[in-house]
Amino acid sequence: MVLSGKRVLLIIGGGIAAYKSLDLIRRLRERGARVTPILTQAGAQFITPLAVGALSATPVYTELFSREDEQDVGHIRLAREADLVLVAPATADRMAQMAAGLAGDLAGAVLLATRSPILLAPAMNPAMWAHAATRRNVASLQADGAHFIGPAVGEMAEAGESGQGRMSEPLEIVAAVEALLEPEDKPLAGRRAVVTSGPTHEPVDPVRYIANRSSGQQGHALAAALARLGAQVTLVSGPVALADPRGVDVVRVETARDMLAAVQNALPADIGVFVAAVADWRTAENAAHKIKKQGDEPPVLQLVENPDILATVGHAANRPALVVGFAAETRNLLENARIKLDKKGADLIVANDVSGTIMGGTRNQVQLVSRNGVEAWPDLSKDEVALRLARHFAKMLETI
User: Fold this and answer.
1) Which of 181, 200, 230 delimits the end of a domain?
2) What is the residue-averaged pLDDT of the chain?
3) Annotated catalytic residue: which of 212, 306, 352, 364?
4) Which of 17, 190, 215, 242 is a plausible cystine mate for 123, CB 3.0–4.6 Å?
């Protein structure tokens, strides 16, 4: 067990998602981790020290200026003894304090003093997550080496509110903890990879566009996983509301033609992974001004086909050694994936049924279609799918 005997210092912030931290403690301990909780003053407004202590079976730390706990400079001891510091929920306020280097409470002092990996599980209203100040703080923390899991997309505690801001589920956070603490080899060291992610936006007029329902979560997770295994990764991303993966070169594009050009500029590469949900069509002409209603008849849009990025690269003379496509289907999944495998010159197709909540969700269930057959995987978090795929690609490259 990866977490057996590992010491996880859990900082529980002040948000309604704090209730999930109780299950998180249980899940970590099930896997052999030793969990030491710090319950912030704000966190204690949502859950009690008694509940936290009962599940962790350890003392619950709450105060920076505790006479007993600080006799041996307790916050330094807590910071240094941990194998990993986990902040769940990580509120907008806590991340702002971290980005500014503030240490006004026990949690802040520990976060400044630790030399261990820090993993944050953000939880907040979607408007707060999207705010420019939060985006700056996230970027600053990532630059400082902090790791993130989530936030997920879904309903908020506030009635009628939904969007990106939900704290990731406990088992997804556990998987991220395991990934950070797992002894890591670098099977892709020295390899170059290019990954596409997100949707493309094909303008109709200055205020409208054609697009697909892609959040970019799977593509971004895969880019991060490839980098974690040692690859030099270029991520070509359509418009998404996600933080850039750490250690990855990101090229932002809007249209399919922009994406193809960016991919071609990123070649040569050893691995090409085409996750993006590229719009198949665009308008033949872009209206210079907003199209207005003209009586009862809707405007007629003449569409032309966009370039097929996977096929273009798959059949190119300078194609990567390993070309991987994604097939998002709502019916005839395997049949369409097999057709795509041959037609587009791919070595592997990752097929998934998107008739449910896959697009925009945090989980995925994929089937790997190659010329050797089909390999079905169970329902997993998108981060776990990404790490498994990255390892699978590394093994495939060994045989090429």
Assistant:
1) 181
2) 91
3) 212
4) 17
